[in-house]
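[User]
If only I could read backbone structure tokens as easily as an amino acid sequence. I have put the entry right below:
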Amino acid sequence: MEATMEETGETTGLEVSLTVHKQLRDVWAALMTPEGNEALLGEGGRLGSKGDDWRSADGAYGVTRSFHPMEQIRFSWHADDDSPRTVVDLQLHDEDGRTRLDLSQDHLPTEADLDALSSHWEDVLARIADLG
């Protein structure tokens, strides 16, 4: 798994990637199940159409910003009511029968704990890889 971090002025971003030894269509199908939604958003989190709100049992919440089947999901993500507004973008890429998952989180404040957030998103990608 790869993780990178970038700081640009007052905000910071991070990226994590993982290649899964499964077909893209199978990874997407698993991601669209309730278990797949929870792997991405947290327990109780449900993806919807563009503009739909979501909330997980741990207090994280947001809005689906972009949804392109078999390609990309973008959503706002707030760890809790006091957290800054950030944007998470998950891209899926076919690589010769395998699937590369690229996840980025942007608009993080410079004081954000990037190591903890990177670890969180690495765990998310690992849960997605274990689906199905």
